[in-house]
Design goal:
Rossmann fold; 202 residues; binds 5-O-phosphono-beta-D-ribofuranosylamine; alpha/beta
């Protein structure tokens, strides 16, 4: 199965996908392309080192968001991508793009959705004072971090946590969960029933 990974930053999740899926010849999963909206994203260095084609597609280089999405869409289709994996990409897809790839775009978010959606989930989590946070992987729909949830893992929040310490523990769980979910998808084990995603037995 060919996947595209969308990034904007450091790319620790991308690295795990490279190491655990792309480089594992038995996985049947190939990262065909990595797309970033930031030229300086360290994730691009990780992709280059793994010999994966990279594209930098910046919103400012296009007349509007639909033109930006159309450019992304062309890359996806040229590379015959079957699953779009969002891993720290800081732009929202427009509804036309989401509709074209419905149930073929997944994202990972460092909170137990629907709590703390948006761009600042970890500071929001700490500010609210919840005792349990976690990781959510979900299908992208037209909303912000609002699509059907595929899998979640809790992470306990400690009284002395700061953003760095909490995010570090969340990352450990992200790096376990994301490759797992992609393997489930590739194996055809995800069944979507309304808002519910059922993980079928292997
Ligand atoms: C992750 O924490 C993910 O949940 C969020 O963005 C972060 C990306 O981190 N959507 P990295 O670039 O994979 O290190």
């Amino acid at each position: 199965m060919k996947i595209a990974v969308f990034v904007s930053g450091s790319g620790t999740n991308l690295q795990v996908l490279i190491d655990q899926l792309h480089r594992d010849n038995t996985s049947g999963i190939e990262i065909s392309v990595v797309i970033s909206d930031r030229k300086k994203a360290y994730a691009l260095t990780r992709a280059k080192e793994a010999g994966i084609p990279i594209y930098v597609v910046r919103v400012g280089d296009f007349p509007d968001r639909n033109a930006f999405d159309a450019a992304i869409s062309r890359i996806i289709d040229e590379h015959e991508v079957e699953l779009i994996v969002v891993a720290g990409f800081m732009k929202l897809f427009q509804p036309v793009f989401v509709q074209k790839y419905r149930n073929r775009i997944i994202n990972i978010h460092p909170s137990l959705l629907p709590a703390f959606p948006g761009a600042h989930p970890v500071p929001d989590t700490l500010a609210y004072g919840v005792k349990v946070s976690g990781v959510s992987v979900f299908f992208v729909d037209e909303g912000v971090d609002a699509g059907a949830i595929i899998a979640q893992v809790p992470v306990t929040v400690s009284d002395d946590d700061d953003e760095e310490s909490l995010l570090a523990r969340i990352h450990v769980e992200e790096h376990r969960l994301y490759p797992q979910v992609i393997r489930w998808y590739a194996a055809g084990r995800l069944q979507i029933v309304g808002r519910k995603v059922i993980v079928k037995e292997a």
